[in-house]
Amino acid sequence: MQLVGGRILIDGQFNGPKAKPTTGWYNSLPPVTKAYGTLCLIFTTAYQFGLYQPAYIALVYERVFKRLEVWRLITCCFFLGPFSVNFGIRLLMIARYGVQLENGPFQRRTADFLWMMLFGAFTLLALSAIPWLWSPFLGVSLVFMLLYVWSREFPNANISIYGLVTLKAFYLPWAMLGMDVIFGSPLLPDLLGIIAGHLFYFLTVLHPLAGGRNILKTPKWVHKLVARLGIGAPATTQAQPDRNTGGAFRGRSYRLGG
What we know:
52% of the residues lie in helices and 9% in strands. It is mainly α and 258 residues long. The strands form 3 sheets. Strands 1-2-3 form a 3-stranded antiparallel sheet, with no helix packed on it. A hairpin with a 3-residue loop joins strand 4 (158-161) and strand 5. Helix 5 (85-103) packs across helix 7 and helix 6 (110-128) packs across helix 10 (220-229).
């Protein structure tokens, strides 16, 4: 028996506390994606335990302005529906596509990723103010926005849907939309998310690549908020889209400096 690295070695085997894979995986998630996915899980779990009714957190503009129930502008973005297969799929989409975005194109750009999420929420709230585009809950739409932006950043990735169909990631949002048609899920939340995602991608990538000015830069207050919260790694150099590799279908590559 001997002590190695703070753990006891008995007969060639370590004895003592071992790392917990689940906890380690959760702690390794990037901050914004982890926070959003956790809040979505908490809201649904609380609903399942009967701690609140969805009507209390739904986006109802009449109650927001007349009764000053301003929390509805925020809470509506975290409800993905009750425990179901669809809920599980949406949560997995956050865990996969949100993580790949925040650890890939938005690596060391936590403020930019947070701004993308905030811009998406603002856009969805504005769209829902139009009567025929109103949706009481915007969580699914925000997840679909993440999916759409991911599909543009990784357009040539091969995606297998239930092992039956393989397609390029560029077409994944539309494939998911088609699956919702098949399973009878409402299409409006998906469409709102696609609109918000395309607007963000157009303003931050396509328009600048075409020679235009980036009119959607991350505000300074978002950078200050991220610094104050101490989340994400501070960027020493800004990652910039490489203008020489433009094209809507190609996605974009990144170079340091510029």
